[in-house]
UniProtKB/TrEMBL annotation:
Gene3D superfamilies: Phosphatidylinositol (PI) phosphodiesterase
Domain GP-PDE: 5-229
Biological process annotations from GO: lipid metabolic process
The protein, known as: Glycerophosphodiester phosphodiesterase
GO MF annotation list: phosphoric diester hydrolase activity
InterPro entries recorded: GP_PDE_dom, PLC-like_Pdiesterase_TIM-brl
Length: 230
């Protein structure tokens, strides 16, 4: 079984600080999180950066696609994956690295993420967990670096979840906590997979999900969820 914390800060501590920034990761740590989740995609020139959307517009105001922007032209405040990893080392933070490829770059992004982890991940930190909605990204990560644990991200769990997880040798399922049914939770845990849910910011909902067998809650407000589960 994967070793996961009970609570992971989503995009850092997105309820309190601009998502997926170094400041947000530090804020998550200040609010008690020991791990954060972050989204990684490639710039036009193939540099892995921390960014959720395909466009820079929502978070930076710059109306341009990440896939068409070289690293040197990124707006200030958007960290590279390597800069984020340095921050995790300084803060002692574990990480759920979500591989969030730009369209058409699924396998390449999976490969670059694990190559970067091999080169840069600090030995003193807990081993990272890879996740992705893209089976192809996880398959490429598995081929290039099988030592990094993988979880398949699924919005709504269907009957094919196990076949998909086996195809990428995943040890966990990360899913939308609001759509998770008790039946699926039991099925996944009984099959020996870890089960994580996103994005849960309500303490009572988190408690109910843990009661259903969920291992880990991914949240924008790690302090709120940690207090509720204490
Ligand atoms: O990894 C959990 C969650 O981040 C998946 O959805 O869209 O917030 O990246 P999204
Ligand atoms: Mg994400």
């Amino acid at each position: 079984m994967l070793q996961l914390p009970r609570v992971i800060g989503h995009r850092g501590a997105a309820a309190y600080s601009p998502e997926n920034t170094l400041e947000s990761f530090r804020e998550a740590r200040r609010r008690g999180a020991t791990w954060v989740e972050t989204d990684i995609k490639l710039t036009a020139d193939g540099v892995p950066i921390v960014m959720h959307d395909e466009s820079l517009k929502r978070t930076t105001g710059v109306d341009r696609l990440v896939a068409e922007t070289p690293r040197a032209e990124l707006p200030r405040g958007v960290p590279t994956f390597e800069e984020a990893i340095v921050c995790f080392g300084e803060e002692g933070l574990g990480c759920n690295v979500e591989i969030k490829p730009c369209p058409g770059r699924e396998a390449e992004t999976g490969r670059v993420v694990v190559e970067t982890l091999r080169r840069c991940w600090p030995a003193q930190l807990p081993a990272p967990l890879l996740s992705s909605f893209k089976d192809e990204s996880l398959a490429a990560a598995h081929r290039a670096a099988p030592e990094f644990a993988r979880a398949l991200l699924i919005g709504t769990i269907g009957d094919d979840w196990r076949a998909r997880a086996e195809a990428v040798a995943a040890g966990g399922i990360n899913t939308n906590g609001e759509k998770l049914t008790a039946v699926r939770a039991v099925e996944i845990r009984k099959a020996g997979y870890t089960l994580s849910v996103y994005t849960i910011d309500d303490g009572d909902v988190a408690k109910a999900l843990i009661g259903m067998g969920v291992d880990c809650v991914i949240t924008d407000a790690p302090d709120v969820i940690l207090a509720a589960l204490r």
